[in-house]
Structure formats: C-alpha cells, structure tokens
Write a structure and sequence with these properties.
Shape: globular
Number of strands: 8
Number of helices: 6
Oligomer: single chain
Strand order of the largest sheet: 1-8-7-4-5-6-2-3
Order of helices and strands: HHEEEEHEHEHEEH
C-alpha cells in the first residue's frame, strides 16, 4: 500500500474502531462523553438552600468565630451549575475524600447515615479530591452514597486550608463559617454525632 493512501485510511479505520485521541485528563465538569451509568449522588442545587432553622452554636463553638469557607467554585458530580462554596447554606458537614483512600472508604457510610439522620438539620456534602470519575462513581454505588458531591481535582480546597491529607472534614455553621477541621482519620457514627453536637450545637438522632 502506498504511504499516501495509508495515511488517508488511518483516520477512517480509527473512527470505525471507536478510538479517539485525547489530550490531558478527564474533565468531570464537562459531563459524560460516553454512555454512562446514572450518578448515585444527589444533585447540588440544594446546597445553596438552608436546611432549616437551626439554633445558634453554643459553648466552644460560640466562643470561636471561625473563618469563612474559601472563595472557590467547584463543579458538581451530576453536572449543572458550578457551586460557589461561600453560597453553601449551613449548617453543613463537608467531607473531602477519594476512592483510593482506605480511611475515606471506611468512613463514607457513616456520612451517608448522618445525611439521613440529620436531614432538615444540616447538609452533608462530599468533595471528591484528585480522583477519577469512574472511581468516585464506583464508591458511590458500592456504599450507597446519596448526598451531593463536588469535584476538586486540583485540590484547591485543601490548598486554601493548607491541608494535604484526606480524609478531611469541615464543620460549617449556619453563617458559613468553619467551626472545626478534623483530620483525625476515619470517623464513625458516634464520633460524627459528637463533633456535630460540640461544634454546631446540634443533636443528631440516633
């Protein structure tokens, strides 16, 4: 086969075989480019809606004014409009996780249970960090994770907070201020309920 003819046939053969050339990594915000499974996570539209009337923080939470969430915009796993972190209505528990992180996988079911038990009192929000869309989706499906999840593939939130490790959990009050940052490792139901009570002044039903 002549070289010129071969050069003309290569793109045709690649198209027939379903191959495409790509540059760079996957952009989760661009949405699926192929037939994809439905997202297990909730839509992010509710994140800027207050979960309900909540009491003012008491005790140590009231004594510490806290700092506002960083001025960052993150994309939502399910698509739609990006979310400005400072527009999130608290109280909220924000968990930064990745599918390749064993402690993250261990604690995610506890966050899902918290999102059910505390519905109407606070929001539980995931931030998937430095991960693949397929990896995050698989974890959501395997563990039945239904709360909203944002993407932070560039670790912008961790850089702003000067924290590098995951899992990382933020407790945010009704005014959008960070009352506590937890990096103690995998959290269970009891530890989560205690953190919510001490730093947000909320009692989560058992």
């Amino acid at each position: 086969m002549k070289p010129r003819l071969a050069a003309l046939l290569v793109p045709v053969l690649l198209a027939l075989a379903g191959c495409t050339a790509t540059t760079g990594g996957e952009d989760p915000a661009a949405g699926p480019t192929r037939a994809a499974r439905p997202s297990p996570f909730a839509d992010c539209a509710t994140l800027t809606t207050a979960p309900g009337s909540t009491p003012a923080p008491t005790g140590s939470a009231a004594a510490d004014a806290g700092s506002p969430l960083p001025e960052l915009v993150l994309s939502c796993f399910t698509g739609g409009a990006p979310v400005q972190l400072r527009d999130i209505h608290g109280p909220a528990v924000i968990n930064v996780w990745a599918s390749w992180c064993p402690p993250c996988r261990k604690e995610l079911p506890a966050f899902q249970r918290l999102s059910v038990r505390a519905a109407g009192q606070l929001q539980v929000i995931g931030v998937n960090s430095r991960d693949s869309r397929d990896g995050a989706q698989a974890i959501g499906e395997d563990f039945g994770i239904r709360f909203p999840v944002l993407f932070d593939q560039g670790e912008a939130l961790q850089r702003e907070l000067r924290r590098t490790a995951v899992p990382l959990t933020l407790l945010v009050d009704a005014q959008g201020r960070i009352r506590h940052t937890d990096t103690s490792g995998a959290l269970d139901d009891a530890r989560l309920a205690d953190l919510v009570r001490r730093h947000l002044g909320l009692v989560v039903p058992a």
